[in-house]
């Protein structure tokens, strides 16, 4: 099974502010949906709470040290259990948040990365990437339009070696 991460960040690596994404970009939401549908999505409790519901048409696995229950999700206390629940799928997606990205950036095989072509204020950041560890499998540029306030660069990165 391939362990992947999907994230959108600004040029100054902001991924969140006040437990929300400080942007609304339909093009990035479509990219996220395209690459996560039918795959297990693994997230931290705060990320789940910011989304507010289970994401449809994909198994939702929440990593949390504290027990809580919600319809249509599975709560686990460690990544090993999350990966065991995902073993029958070709790819599992880590979708956030900041703590999960920090802990597992060195362990994922693939990174779906949206770089929002601006700098914004935030309180949660994506870890600094060592670009020498990654091979660009694909890159797509999308200019800003009426619905998307910023230019976007979509990457699929594969870990080297």
List keywords for this structure.
oxidoreductase, globular, 4 helices, Dihydrofolate Reductase, subunit A, two-stranded antiparallel ribbon, alpha/beta, single chain, about 160 residues
Short overview:
The chain has 161 residues and is an alpha/beta fold.
Can you offer a commentary on this structure?
The mean pLDDT is 97. 20% of the residues lie in helices and 34% in strands. The protein has one domain (2-159): 3-Layer(aba) Sandwich (Dihydrofolate Reductase, subunit A), CATH 3.40.430.10. Strand 3, helix 2 (45-51) and strand 4 (60-63) form a beta-alpha-beta unit. The strands form two sheets. An eight-stranded mixed β-sheet has the order 5-4-3-6-1-7-10-9, sandwiched between helices. Strands 2-8 form a two-stranded antiparallel ribbon. By secondary structure, the chain is α/β, with parallel strands linked by helices.
Spatial gap, N to C terminus: 17 Å
**Main sheet overview:** 8 strands, mixed
How many structural units, i.e. domains?
A: 1
How is the largest sheet built, in terms of strand order? 5-4-3-6-1-7-10-9
The residue fraction in helices comes out at 10-25%
Describe the secondary-structure layout.
Layout: E1 2-10, E2 14-16, H1 26-36, E3 41-44, H2 45-51, E4 60-63, E5 74-76, H3 79-86, E6 91-96, H4 98-104, E7 110-116, E8 124-125, E9 134-142, E10 152-159
Parallel strand pairs: 1-6, 1-7, 3-4, 3-6, 4-5
Antiparallel strand pairs: 2-8, 7-10, 9-10
EC number: 1.5.1.3
Function: Key enzyme in folate metabolism. Catalyzes an essential reaction for de novo glycine and purine synthesis, and for DNA precursor synthesis.
Pathway: Cofactor biosynthesis; tetrahydrofolate biosynthesis; 5,6,7,8-tetrahydrofolate from 7,8-dihydrofolate: step 1/1
């Amino acid at each position: 099974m391939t362990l992947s991460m999907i994230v959108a960040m600004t040029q100054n690596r902001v991924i969140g502010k006040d437990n929300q994404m400080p942007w609304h970009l339909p093009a990035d939401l479509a990219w996220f949906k395209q690459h996560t549908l039918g795959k297990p999505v693994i997230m931290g409790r705060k990320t789940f709470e910011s989304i507010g519901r289970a994401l449809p048409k994909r198994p939702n696995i929440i990593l949390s040290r504290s027990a809580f229950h919600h319809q249509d999700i599975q709560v686990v206390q460690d990544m090993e259990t999350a990966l065991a629940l995902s073993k029958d799928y070709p790819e599992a997606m880590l979708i956030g948040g900041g703590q999960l990205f920090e802990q597992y950036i060195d362990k994922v095989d693939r990174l779906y990365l949206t770089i929002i072509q601006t700098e914004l204020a935030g309180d949660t950041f994506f870890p600094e990437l060592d670009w020498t560890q990654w091979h660009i499998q694909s890159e797509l540029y999308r200019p800003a339009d009426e619905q998307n306030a910023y230019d976007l660069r979509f990457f699929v990165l594969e870990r080297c070696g």
